[in-house]
Amino acid sequence: MRNFIYKNPTQLVFGKGEIARLSSLIPTEKKVLITFGGGSVKKNGVYEEVISALKDHHYIEFWGIEPNPTVETLRKAIEIGKENEVDFLLAVGGGSVLDGTKLIASALATPETEAWDIVLKGKAAKTLPYASVMTLPATGSEMNNGAVISRSETKEKYSFYSAYPQFSILDPQTTFSLPKNQLANGLADVYVHVIEQYLTTTGQSRIMDRWAEGILLTVLEIAPQIMQNSQDYDLMADFMLSATLALNDMIRMGVIEDWATHMIGHELTALHGISHGASLAIVLPGIMKILKEQKHNKLLQYAERVFGLKEGSENDRIDQAIQQTENFFHSIGLATTLSEAGIPETAISIIKERFNKAGVKYGEKANVTGDLAEQILTIQK
Ligand code: NZQ
Ligand code: ZN
């Protein structure tokens, strides 16, 4: 196991009716900027719950943070935040609203730095205190310090690090209104977050492996039931907590990580607008196939412990595990090839060029270059 430092300061507030706790979690002297997406929270009652909890607070609202939040939209919120001298932010919605809020909070704390420059730097020097009411289990953004921001002018999408949320409120009842495609995107995102931290090499940490496999098995168990019925509180509670635990630093202690699937997926989203989870369902099987030898031992462990595959040759078991992974994505309604998803093959050469030009080397062995990304996408075209 590698050396590591673990500190996650986010207070997690979980359960039915917990949104009401906002009234005491945010000090009344704060000037709060509440951020929202396109309006889902008005339809499912979350907006009323938030506003009634904050009736004695001083707050203003910013609406319109879009899926895959753009710096162009966020700059407007930053201006409003400056004009109103806000000193606390509350994101209410999915990962996009929260990620966007991480950038707003960072830009307000460092007014000398332009918002996009914070993203390009990869780390904010300072961030105003902020918190969230998370309504979509997927990103883990509610309990991590990462954020992914898009720039529509140039079709770019990059991540940066801010401070952690002070607290996040997760009431599984807020997820009852999620449409099927967002359930599928969320399930895929959670699954792939675990894979990015797990599917590297064996023998690093028994405890991290078991933890990761526990989340994978939970997602595989609940996914078909959730796709049938997303109104079951306990199912949605397990979904929400799986999402948080998959990306809150818990399962990455002392192990190497991959993240190449995400980096290629972000390019597909930036170029073609495909939603985040859906992009991962295309890239992950390609990574597993092209890096089969490099990941041989861990794929074998994955095959046995996650899919119970113990018979046949090692290569057969690995091939079956990759097929089962694709079957899982199909079973929740996601495409695993570019053509099925309506993405033109031209994306492959553009991504290859972008990666080669930037000289990137992703993955646990730092060998996923533009040329390898081309192979990964070509096998899934
Ligand atoms: O905008 P509204 O009207 O609120 O609707 C949203 C949006 O249209 C809707 N929605 C959210 N909660 C709902 C709901 N609809 C009905 N009922 C609810 N309870 O869902 C749509 C998608 O929302 P979005 O926030 O975009 O989805 P998600 O949470 O999957 O976030 C995706 C973004 O997060 C980034 C992705 O790259 C993408 O930009 N990621 C962030 C990460 C992080 N911060 O750690 C890690 C991830 O790997 C990911 O990259
Ligand atoms: Zn993700």
What key attributes describe this structure?
single chain, 381 residues, alpha/beta, 6-stranded parallel β-sheet, two-stranded antiparallel sheet, 15 helices, 8 strands, binds 5,6-dihydroxy-NADP, binds zinc ion
Helix-strand blueprint:
Layout: E1 11-14, H1 22-25, E2 31-36, H2 40-43, H3 46-53, E3 58-62, H4 71-83, E4 88-93, H5 95-109, H6 115-121, E5 130-134, E6 146-151, E7 156-161, E8 167-170, H7 180-198, H8 206-228, H9 233-246, H10 260-272, H11 276-290, H12 296-307, H13 314-331, H14 346-358, H15 370-378
Parallel strand pairs: 1-8, 2-3, 2-4, 4-5, 5-8
Antiparallel strand pairs: 6-7
Provide an overview of this structure.
- A hairpin with a 4-residue loop joins strand 6 (146-151) and strand 7 (156-161).
- The longest helix has 23 residues, at 206-228.
- The chain has helices spanning 22-25, 40-43, 46-53, 71-83, 95-109, 115-121, 180-198, 206-228, 233-246, 260-272, 276-290, 296-307, 314-331, 346-358, 370-378; strands spanning 11-14, 31-36, 58-62, 88-93, 130-134, 146-151, 156-161, 167-170.
- Helix 12 packs across helix 13 (314-331).
- The chain has a six-stranded parallel beta sheet with strand order 1-8-5-4-2-3, with helices on both faces.
- It is an alpha/beta fold.
- The structure holds 5,6-dihydroxy-NADP and zinc ion (ZN).
- 5,6-dihydroxy-NADP (NZQ) is lined by residues 37-41, 44, 67-68, 93-97, 99, 135-136, 138-141, 144, 146-148, 174-175, 177-178, 182, 185-186, 189, 247, 262, 276.
